[in-house]
Each structure stands twice: as structure tokens, then as C-alpha cells.
Amino acid sequence: MLDRLRIKIFADGADLASMRALAANPRVKGFTTNPTLMRKANVTDYVAFAHQVLAAIPDRPVSFEVFADEFPEMEAQALEIASWGKNVYVKIPITNTRRASAVPLVQQLSKQGVQLNVTAVFTLAQVEAITGALDAATPAVISVFAGRIADTGVDPVPLMAEAKRISRAKPKAELLWASPRELLNIFHAESVGCDIITVTPDVLAKLELVGKSLDDYSLETVKMFYKDASAAGYSIPSGMRRAARAAG
Q1: Residue 126: CA atoms inside 13 Å, Cβ hemisphere, count?
Q2: Candidates 91, 111, 172, 227; catalytic one
């Protein structure tokens, strides 16, 4: 089943050891990270970390995000990050913290040939604006946070299908399903034609379950409950049942 998937799986994280291990997995076609993940992984030197990652992963796309909030500084960071390697994509948030649109900057950088990953995208209006701004000759990624959209009670599947329709106007733009919540999201993303899905290591670990017999999985679960109850030494004395009946 996995061999028939057309969608590309990108690993999302900032733990260098984990990224190196995942680089040996042929199912992983690229990598993404962001400042929040880097902070959680105790990365203290952004540039040094990025160069370590690129030394370990020179042959697949890797996205690094700008962290400035003013657009001139954001542009300078983007150009610096882009210079680190041909496999580098620069993540640009769709707005700054004051809700000012980054679309003009996206247009400017894309026209200069900078490979962008436009991130924190939640609406179809944002997808339309990004698609219109991208240079037709420059590869780009549009990262729609489908998992976070689902967290609000909105079904992301039809939204992502429409996002794919919009992004087709720029053939070098790839649609990315970001922030998946479960392995099934890989198949959701595949069904609507997404080009990429970012997957965290804990979800990646579940790939081996795809196609597993549900009868076998049921039995394994029963055995797990039994083993853990036995290991904990749990017991329910029969006298307690009689006392409970008498009290009732």
C-alpha cells in the first residue's frame, strides 16, 4: 500500500540525531523544521545547526524558516539561508506578527529564484494570493496547516482539494499538508492530490502498521492489557464482590 503512494513524505523536526537516522529511510523525501521545533530540541545556534543538518542531508529538500518580523530583515535572512545550499527552501510565514501580508516579499524573492516554503497558511484566500505571487519558473511549497484547521472543527479535506486546484496555476508550486494529527492523514492528503505531507517521528513510526491485520492487532492489544495488569500485580479479591453485593 505504501509503495503505491504518490505523495512525498517529509520529516518534521529539529533533533539532529533523529534527522540523521531518518535520512537513511528511503521513504523520507525531505525535511522541514521551524524555530519552535528547534527551541524544543535545545538548539542554541541556528546557523551552526542548519549547516550540520545540510552536511548530513545534502541530497533532499530541507526547509529553514526566517524569524525576523520586519520584512527588510526577513528578506536579508531569506537570502542568507538560500545561499546555504541548492537543496534549501526558505520558509516565509504568510504574515508577520502584526498580520501584515508577506505576499509582496514572496513575490520579490520568488522572482529572484529563491526556493520558498510559504508557511502558516490556513485559508484559501491566502493560497490564492501566494499562488499569484509565485514566479512560474521557481520551485516553491505552499504549506497549509491542515491539522490545525481540523483542530477548529473544520474538515480540511475539501479545503485542501480546493487549495490543490488553485495551486495548479503554478506547476512548480507544491502543496504541502502540514501538522498532520494521525497516520490516516497521509491517505487524506494523497486522496486530494497533495504533493507533500510533513510527518513527525512519532507518526512516521506508525508506517509499519499500514496494512496490518486488524484481527492480529486486536489480539496484540488484549495481550498488552493482560501483560500490564499482571506486571502491576493488580487483583480484585472475591470477598470484595460479595461485600459489594451485600451492601447493594
Answers
A1: 21
A2: 91
Give the three cell numbers for residue 50. Answer: 542548519
- Tens digits of per-residue pLDDT, 45-102? 999 999 999 999 999 999 999 999 999 999 999 999 999 999 999 999 999 999 999 9
3-class state of residue 79 by DSSP: helix
206 is catalytic: no
Give the predicted TM-score (pTM) of the model: 0.90
Q: Which three cell numbers stand for residue 139?
A: 520551485
Q: Where are the beta strands (DSSP E) in 61-183?
A: 62-65, 88-93, 116-121, 140-144, 173-177
CATH superfamily of domain region 2-209: Aldolase class I (3.20.20.70)
Cβ neighbourhood burial of 21 (10 Å; 0-12, 13-18, 19+): middle
Contact 14, 49 (CB under 8 A): yes
Q: Mean of the pLDDT values across residues 95-121? A: 98
**To the nearest 10°, the Cα dihedral for 15, 17, 19, 24?**
-170
* CA pair distance 50, 54, nearest whole angstrom: 6
Residue 131 has pLDDT above 90, yes or no: yes
Domain spans of the chain? Answer: 2-209, 214-247
